[in-house]
Design a protein that fits this description.
By secondary structure, this protein is α/β, with parallel strands linked by helices. It has twelve helices and nine strands.
Amino acid sequence: MTDDESTSAASDEEVTIQDKPSPNHELAMMNKGESQNRWHGLIILTLMFLMSCFFSTRTGQPSPASANAPETEFSSARAMSILVEIARQAHPPGSPEHERVRGYLVDRLTTLGLDPEIQTSTSSFQRRTMARTATVRNVIARLPGTASTGAILITAHYDSRGLAVGAGDDGTGVVSILETLRAIQTGPPLRNDVIVLFTDAEELGLLGARAFVNEHPWMEDIQLVLSFEMRGGGGPVIMVETAEDNGWIIDALQASDQYPFANAMAYEVYQRMPNDTDFTPFKEAGKQGLNFAAIDKGHVYHQQYDTPENLSESTLQHHGLHALHVLRYLGDQDLVNVNAPDVVYFSMPALGLFVYQVTWVKWISAGLIILLILALLAVHRSSVRLSGALIGAGISIVGASLSFGFALLLLNWLPR
């Protein structure tokens, strides 16, 4: 080998050696990558923590209000002071305690400046092999508006099950209405009439509500119905039911309710369950409206544990704010036409109620499919295996579907 060849070979070897990263360089690059990953992880954890703090303070359920709250606002403390008088003990239809509660409601409405009446009727209910008939006594009052375009009915039932004290079901609805009426009357008068209906014998088959729908002359004046129910003793108060052509009333809910909790999917599920409330006869009669209920702490439902002590005051406050804000808004609207095409709606913590037309669904679905395709392409170009991503997505979808189906199965097994 000549000197030139030796020099050239040495140069090539030098280049080769220089081109090969040193172990120290590789270690430095690995440490740099790990450091970047740690920073990325820290940033993600920080964002998740901040989002958790933000959403936990706005779960859609308000805090209780004290008895010193402004007179124009709803106070769960003031409502609770009424509830302890109503829910002393079980008050099923026909019992002496039931009669006492009815008299107490008449006195409260009279104190609010209204002129309550008792609708006495014999009402019947039949389903398959079951039939019930009872004499019902509904407590009714009317708050006149300044230039009414239709009446708004606000209703809850005042009877309880045989052994249930009835603080949640449905003392909560009753006292929410009473405290709402008090707050309404401290402000300017509403444009539209408000009809108050405390129904009797709901627990026997909606007998009081059926008697009102079938017989009372004020039924013709009603444009909207706001019904307040309970299936437990706590949790957020959900708008569980509306009627067909709900576009107008859902828009009104979005505009008025500060703590909306509603979902069109939940309503579709609810319709397929064997549940009825006092809203049912009005809906069957073609009336538009909203039905509110809370379902947490279900172990107290229709039990002797359904007492004021076991009731969540946050739930009571939520009931009352629904009633007050929605009634104030609707009380000043034109109620000549309260029907519009159905809409899709859902609520999100801190962000409120989202509403869009049913016709948008196909475009939203198309957009989601495009996003899925783009995500799969991005995965394909990255170091993540496409098959693994597809398997993970499939497991998530199947798991969510099974959970949803199992929940529906359990709900269908729950006694009414």
